[in-house]
Design brief:
With 149 residues, this protein is mostly beta strands. It has a single domain, classed as Jelly Rolls. Helices cover 3% and strands 52% of the residues. The strands form 3 sheets. The protein has a 5-stranded antiparallel sheet with strand order 1-11-4-8-7, with no helix packed on it. Strands 3-9-5-6 form a 4-stranded antiparallel sheet, with no helix packed on it. The longest helix has 5 residues. It is globular, with a radius of gyration of 16 Å. The termini are far apart. The relative contact order is 0.38.
Length: 149
């Protein structure tokens, strides 16, 4: 696995994710020609009671005063109940792409971006979630020649 451009995780207080706990991650983009993959990181225990998690993602670009909001479902287990990701004992860790159609992300503005997560399950607090985080990987560059044609 390549080293991330940015990666940070935040501990969930009492391992129970409350609606009003919205971990926020800020990172700087200086290269607007690069392509990036973004991942939602989650650590949960084997006792997590669901096979998925619904999350609100709030994104704020440099110079913006408001967040754009989108909702995604992240599968955590296969249909047979087997956890996805990496497990060690009773702990499970997973990273799931959060870009649309798993396409690489292009940041068109230089500056500081902020991404915030909010759990959106029917249960509050959501039990057995230990950490959530954001991983940003630089994966290459746009083909600028093709765009000029």
């Amino acid at each position: 696995m390549s080293s991330p451009y940015f990666q940070k995780e935040e501990a969930i207080p009492q391992n129970s994710w409350q609606y009003d706990f919205k971990p926020s991650f800020k990172f700087d983009i200086t290269d607007t020609t690069a392509l990036y993959n973004l991942y939602f990181l989650i650590n949960h225990t084997e006792a997590y009671p669901y096979s998925n998690i619904w999350v609100w993602i709030y994104t704020k670009e440099p110079g913006d005063t408001t967040f754009k909001k989108s909702r995604i479902e992240i599968p955590l287990a296969e249909s047979n109940g087997k956890w996805m990701g990496r497990g060690m004992g009773e702990l499970w860790q997973q990273q799931m792409p959060i870009t649309r159609n798993d396409d690489p992300m292009v940041f068109t503005k230089k500056g500081t971006y902020e991404i915030r997560f909010e759990q959106n399950m029917r249960v509050n607090p959501l039990p057995e979630v230990l950490h959530v985080g954001l991983r940003v990987e630089k994966i290459g560059y746009r083909n600028t020649q093709a765009q000029k044609k």
